[in-house]
Design goal:
By secondary structure, this protein is of the alpha/beta class. It contains 15 helices and 17 strands. The protein has two domains: 5-281, Queuine tRNA-ribosyltransferase-like (TIM Barrel); 282-376, no CATH class. Helices cover 43% and strands 17% of the residues. A hairpin with a 6-residue loop joins strand 8 (115-118) and strand 9. The active site is at 95 (proton acceptor), 274 (nucleophile).
Length: 379
């Protein structure tokens, strides 16, 4: 079995956007790509069959923190890893759990060894170390596993951001050492991605990009954005990081964001995205469509029997009407959550596919500038 490879196929003539092909032992991924978030081994309200047929997902995420706590490593290992446990046979990326652990501000304690925290489920105490997180992700079995890092708040003071970055880099060294000294667990190759940190400080971000690039990993990630900073600042830091990360490796922007965020960051050279927004917003009656944003709760949709979005190649988006979906969500019917979540994910995958096609055609920048105002419309 072979390590992840990245083939850069096309560069847009009017921006830094690019189209590529990632190859893993569980299949290929056409970039730019959006990755649905399957925190506990499932994308909320969406079956694996729908992820394949309607959403057309090429890779999904799992989360180390949540899967470690439940169902636990013994269950996953006896199943033969997450792919066999949840029946998803395409690539999987596992987040290290760092963001989840650090969001437990009231119960966690950071030290050189790692982070102690209390489970949100039963209050039990746990320790995550860089070595332990590598072992956990080996057992979960993701094709791409993430380094354990500290994600400082967006408004962090420079002194804290610098100390945090230095800790993240020391932890990265330990992650790399542990990763390189342990074998792949289930007969296919796993790949470690380091994470760029440095808060909103360009010198720290540059330092982090250079340090991470020196590890010569198969891909690199940018973390610590979309954590409360103004949108223009997010774009500025993302663009800066892309300029200082290797062009021959895939770049993954973690946890971002809206459809227009994704398009803007594609234009800066980002290849991979994930975010809970499409499913979370869908469960709360916000639909992203090819014509704009719909709050399906609004009374104006009560008698609208037209399909949710005829602009998508999605059976669910074309089969069910806006009026029916509104009725389901108003009635708190579980089917409504499935329809809304599946539709939003299908839209996100449609969007990155369109972006890829326009990169290849050479007119991505003009297409992006024309479509973003449409997508932002409130219908």
């Amino acid at each position: 079995m072979a390590a992840l490879s990245f083939q850069l196929q096309h560069n847009d003539t009017g921006s830094k956007a690019r189209a590529g092909l990632i190859t893993t032992d569980h299949g290929q991924i056409e970039t730019p790509i959006f990755m649905p978030v399957g925190t506990v081994g499932s994308v909320k309200a969406v079956s694996q069959q729908l992820l394949n047929s309607d959403v057309k997902a090429q890779i999904i995420l799992g989360n180390t923190y949540h899967l470690y706590l439940r169902p636990g490593l013994e269950v996953l290992e006896k199943a033969g890893g997450l792919h066999r446990f949840n029946g998803w046979h395409k690539p999987i990326l596992t987040d290290s759990g760092g963001y989840q652990v650090f969001s437990l501000a009231g119960t966690r304690k950071i030290k050189e060894e790692g982070v102690t925290f209390q489970s949100h489920i039963d209050g039990s105490k746990h320790l995550f170390t860089p070595e332990g997180v590598m072992d956990i992700q080996r057992t979960i079995g993701g094709d791409i596993i993430m380094a354990f890092d500290e994600c400082p708040p967006g408004g962090s003071e420079y002194s804290y951001a610098r100390k945090s970055l230095e800790l993240t880099h020391r932890w990265l060294d330990r992650c790399v050492e542990r990763f390189n000294s342990t074998p792949d667990k289930y007969g296919y190759t796993q790949n470690l991605f380091p994470i760029v940190q440095g808060a909103m400080y360009k010198d720290l971000r540059k330092q982090s990009c250079e340090y991470i690039a020196s590890k010569n990993a198969t891909g690199n990630a940018i973390g610590g954005l979309s954590v409360g900073e103004p949108e223009p600042v997010m774009y500025e830091i993302c663009d800066w990081c892309c300029d200082h990360l290797p062009a021959e490796k895939p770049r993954y922007l973690m946890g971002v964001g809206t459809p227009w965020n994704i398009l803007e960051c594609i234009g800066m050279g980002i290849d991979m995205f994930d975010c809970v927004m499409p499913t979370r917003n869908g469960r709360n009656a916000m639909l992203f469509t090819t014509r704009g944003v719909i709050n399906i709760d609004n009374k104006k949709w009560e008698f609208d029997y037209s399909p949710i979005d005829e602009g998508l190649d999605s059976e669910i988006s074309n089969y069910y009407s806006k009026a029916y979906l509104r009725h389901l969500l108003k009635s708190k019917e579980i089917l409504g959550l499935t329809i809304a979540s599946t539709h939003n994910l299908a839209f996100y995958l449609w969007l990155v596919k369109q972006a890829r096609e326009h990169i290849i055609a050479g007119d991505f920048e003009s297409w992006k500038n024309n479509i973003i105002p449409v997508l932002k419309q409130r219908l």
